[in-house]
Amino acid sequence: MNTPPTLARLSSLIALLTLSACQVLPTRPICPSGADLSAGMLQGEWIAQIASEAPWTLNLGPHPEHPGSLRGTLQRDHQAHAVVADLDDGEFTLEESHDGKRIAATWQGSLPAQGCGRQIEGQRSLAGQPSHHFLIFRKL
Question: What are the boundaries of the signal sequence (predicted)?
Fold first, then answer.
């Protein structure tokens, strides 16, 4: 069956435009690494598991006084602690305060590649105590 010349040219043009659009569109990794993420991408609700303790709920939002940083709360039962956090080249730092004035604990971690930006793991340190492993993961 012969295809009319106009239809054949139209099909070729559509194929060419489709291919050229694919070359122009920015690509985004399916599973971003920690270095590909910004602090803003960590906004939202997370679950924080410290060693063998009961889990905490971690809520992070933009810090109103420090652009690019996060502020929020760490909650469990009737306890709530203020937190501030930063993400710098895949390195996560969170400072926890029990009185809103002094740092009670420091969390230092990273975003493992297999976590696809939905998991943070590292060590939580309280003054004068041994550090404990933590795992923070995005609440589904």
Answer: 1-23
Q: What is the dihedral of CA 101, 44, 26, 88, to 10 degrees?
A: 20
Structure tokens at 94: 């969170």
Q: Fill in the DSSP letter of residue 40.
A: G
Pairing of strands 119-126, 105-110: antiparallel
Sketch out the chain's domains with CATH numbers.
34-138 (2.40.128.120)
For 28-72, write each residue's pLDDT tens digit: 557 776 677 788 889 999 999 999 899 999 999 999 999 999 999
Cα angle value 81/83/89 (rounded, 5°): 155
**Integer CA distances (angstroms), 91 to 18, 19, 21, 74, 97, in order:** 39, 37, 35, 19, 20
- The dihedral over CA atoms of 33, 68, 85, 37, expressed in degrees to the nearest 10, equals -10
Show the DSSP H helices in the chain as ranges. 5-24
Distance between CA atoms of 27 and 29, rounded to whole angstroms? 7
What six digits make up the tokens of 55?
Answer: 């889990």
The helix, strand and coil proportions of the chain, stated in percent and rounded to the nearest 5, come to 20, 40, 35
pTM beyond cutoff 0.70: yes
